[in-house]
Every structure is written in structure tokens, then in C-alpha cells.
Specification:
The chain has 102 residues and is mostly helical. The protein folds into two domains: 59 residues; 42 residues. Helix content is 89%, strand content 0%. It has two helices and no strands. The longest helix has 53 residues. The radius of gyration is 42 Å and the shape is rod-shaped.
Length: 102
């Protein structure tokens, strides 16, 4: 099977188009894709750093539940302290009114 002159010209033109247009275009697009992938990788690294910072800054939030539980448990004690200090204040006010500083 032999190529005719027309077939040979078409073959050479197609090869030239592939070498001159298609290959450089493919290389350019692959370079752009690689650059975008590297940018995405950098952004993901930044996101990981930020996420770890958020996680470490919010790690103490469960401890707030313990704080609230302790505060609720302290309410009756605080009320007792308030009542007793009120009684002491009344006692001191009565003594001061009687003129006895002791």
C-alpha cells in the first residue's frame, strides 16, 4: 500500500498541526492544571493550620459545662453566705445603734 502525493501532503499537514498547535496547547493546559493543583495544595495547608488553631482555641469549651455545673451547685451555698452575712450586718448595725462599738 503506497501513499499518493495528496495523502502524503495531508499526513504531513496533520503532523505539523499536531506538533505546532496541539502539543504546545496540551503542555500549556497541563502546566496551568499543575499550577492550580499546587495553589489548591497551599490553600489546603493554610486551611489545616487555621483549623488546628480553631480546634485548639475551642478545646476548653467542654470545661464550661463543668464550670456551669459547679456554679449551679454553689448557688445554695452562696445564698446561705448571703443570709449569714446579712445577719452579721444586722447585728453590727444594732450594736452600732446602741452605741457599743465592741
Amino acid at each position: 500500500m503506497t501513499l499518493t502525493t495528496t495523502g502524503l501532503v495531508i499526513w504531513i499537514v496533520l503532523l505539523a498541526i499536531i506538533v505546532i498547535v496541539i502539543v504546545p496547547l496540551a503542555v500549556s493546559l497541563l502546566q496551568r492544571a499543575l499550577r492550580a493543583a499546587r495553589n489548591i495544595e497551599a490553600y489546603l495547608a493554610d486551611m489545616l493550620t487555621a483549623g488546628l488553631g480553631v480546634a485548639s482555641n475551642t478545646a476548653a469549651i467542654p470545661a464550661l459545662d463543668d464550670t456551669i455545673a459547679v456554679a449551679v451547685a454553689m448557688m445554695p451555698v452562696a445564698k446561705d453566705i448571703e443570709v449569714k452575712t446579712g445577719a452579721v450586718a444586722d447585728f453590727m448595725a444594732r450594736r452600732a445603734a446602741q452605741g457599743n462599738p465592741q
